[in-house]
Design brief:
alpha+beta; Rossmann fold; 5 domains; six-stranded mixed β-sheet; 24 helices; 25% strand; exosome; exoribonuclease II activity; endonuclease activity; RNA binding; rRNA processing
Amino acid sequence: MLQSKAYVKKTKQGKVVKVVREHYLRDDIYCGVPFCKVCDVTNARLSSTASTILVVDTNVVLHQIDLLENPAIDDVVVLSVVLEEVKNKNLSVYNRIRALCENRLRRFFVFSNENHKDTYVKVQAGESPNDRNDRAIRVAAQWYQNHLGSAVRVLLITNDRENKKKAINSGISAETVESYVKLLGQPALLDLIVQPQSEDVIMEDAEDMRPAKRKIIYPEHKPMSEITSGLHRGIYHQGKLRVNRYNPFEAYVGSESIGDEIIVYGRTNMNRAFDGDIVAVELLPHDQWQQEKSLAMANDDDEEEDDVHLAPSSADDAPRVTNLSQVSDGDKNSLPTRPSGRVVGIIKRNWHSYCGSLDPMPMPAGEGGIAHALFVSKDRRIPKIRIQTRQLGNLLDKRIIVAVVLIENDIDSRPFSSQVLACLPPLPWSVSAEDMANPIRQDLRHLRVFSVDPPGCKDIDDALHCMLLPSGNFEVGVHIADVTNFVHPGTPLDDEASQRGTSVYLVERRIDMLPKPLTEDICSLRSDVERLAFSVIWEMTPEAEIISTRYTKSIIKSCAALSYVEAQARMDDSRLVDPLTTDLRNMNALAKIMRHRRIDRGALTLASAEVKFQIDTETHDPLDIGMYQIREANQMIEEFMLAANISVAKKILDHFPPTSLLRRHPSPTKEMLEPLIQTAAAVGLSLDVSSSKALADSLDRAVGEDPYFNKLIRILATRCMTQAVYFCSGDLSPPEFFHYGLAAPVYTHFTSPIRRYADVIVHRLLAASLGICRLPDIFQERPRLTSIADNLNYRHKNAQMASRASVELHTLIYFRNRPTDTEARILKIRSNGFIVFVPKYGIEGPVYLMPRGGKGGGEWIIDEQQQKIKKVNGEASYGVLQSVRIHMEVVEPQPNRPKLELTLI
């Protein structure tokens, strides 16, 4: 059926033209209900056992999206008229509701009511667009009920008083959001409901409530149109807000437009922005710019007073315990000032789940038992937040310790769905005759293949072999689990892995990207079993020069799964001369040459404070803690994995220049390296940072009598680096592909497809470059590949943060009943103390020299050039990299917020 409408309009040039709009209506649009006897049910999305089907109006979607995303809400019809309205009003909510409708695990169905001949409605005389859309929603709800009859109840969900009244008068069942949720009998869902503010909206049991006047604490955010114009004119500056981990009242916004970081002091100037938000910043007048060092480390007691969740009245309310009155005017002027600013708008929120505890507020409970409380995040960079809840009694003094790390870092730890598990081959699995006969797969079972991994590793991605050739050269192979033989594009298994992005390694737990049957059995390259692999094989001279490279799908049978300790012990034991040990020694000799050559090119040898726990198998509590020890065996495996990744990167880029997934490490800016240069200068070192090669050479020369000194300098250098990221090759120019840390023109990840989805993509690219299979459709759409790269970067960063948080949590548990005295090194000077690193335990934290407000602690001044903090009376002085004795003890200054307190002895 064709509906047409003709009208005339005047153009900008003054001409009058006739416009004809045609609207096609159909009678074959199906309802999405699987038990419908009229419609095609092939692609039905709703439940076959549903007793109630919900039809939601526009405002319910706009304001209650958090509730709709809860798995308790299902069998929902989303009308096309609603989708269009939501898209016009809030693109973020639109994307979320579209994701729900496209999620195979949720029962949300989009019904094209605007194109169905029985549900399309015309605008009536004098009717507003909003009223017409509300009527269209009621008509669609009525059609569903008539269409399905008594088999199911169709319920319109609306908080609009007039819409509900008209629906009921027309014989349509209708409920408010709150009344429907109460019918579900799940009180916890009530806390997800956003209370409406309009007088035209129904508030259950609160007809006489009037909103109380509230004190305006924060300035209004600028409208996006004004922000866009201001950015274009250079009035505002865009960047990511990073809150200081040691002082939540101090934040930084990296701005490309001014080529420097803008410092944001105090909650008011942060203006409701959270760590990680993309914000628009306005620079303060120059006379309000402050010295970066003028802020102290904030202690747990350094909070705003009763209205902490609101903000200080000005930026100057941020806690400051330094007394700079002892510094001469000349010294003050010598302290470099940095641009200071305030947030005027939030361009993109970094929302994710936060973990913490609740503190009750002294306010009377409202209607329905609604109580007020302050949410206190475990992460002090997140300000206290005022919330309303009906479950305060159940939530006080509780924190779900097990889930803290996962929730806070947006880690999906849910069990794999039945749809995902259905994609796996049945167990027990073994290499089949078809695999053996496959011409694309080479039989390499005759090779002496082995793996070297951390102790207890079950998800073994990689194995190697090293064979002496008659020519005197070596054949060296890196064999990687052939995950893509089991994970096929577009399947629920592939979709799940794509979303998870990476496996997450916690102290006592692993959150898998792929189901355990794949990670620990089918794909894992365990010893003495035949497995499918994707192999990179080189011919190398004894000087580790690559003569040739070939790539092949293969079948291998590992002869040994060694730990790093076992491999090292074999190489070190001169009595052992067996073939496997000889292979290890030959590989190690090649790896040393390769490593030396890579460092000569400018690759950096950095250091990090990796911590290792010994865990009690019954209680899962840590029994011991110490720094992770790196051996030659570790470096040997690392070298060949790097070589394989570089070889594969070159191969896929040659074949697919616009759509290869690569990994780059941008060069750090001069500003990023400034803290390292300053610290080195304070201890008499001059670092050349003009290139990665120059920095590497400078770090090699940074040695002293203290054997730990060089590692400290390398740890500080690591802190100054940018983050390595995945990217689509078509999005950047070749010079931007460079990996600074590895001094490699091109690099990717190929060697861990069990643990990283990036490697799965690269395996598909490599297979297509060899003609083994066709390139999946996704590689024809560069924006989709870019989107996947962005998600991989997000998931990789979150996995790192979760791992660190897991270490911090277990460190607290370990020291809970173990007060300890130990040696520490000063990493950074602050105005009321310093930040130290504890080599023995790999722990970093603040040491305060003064109590809050500086009372009773004496006066301290900072020597910026020498990186020292000293008492005015000269009794004590401390400098960067200096060794100090500290006492470590777990304290709990506030309920449910234990912390490891470091104090100077």
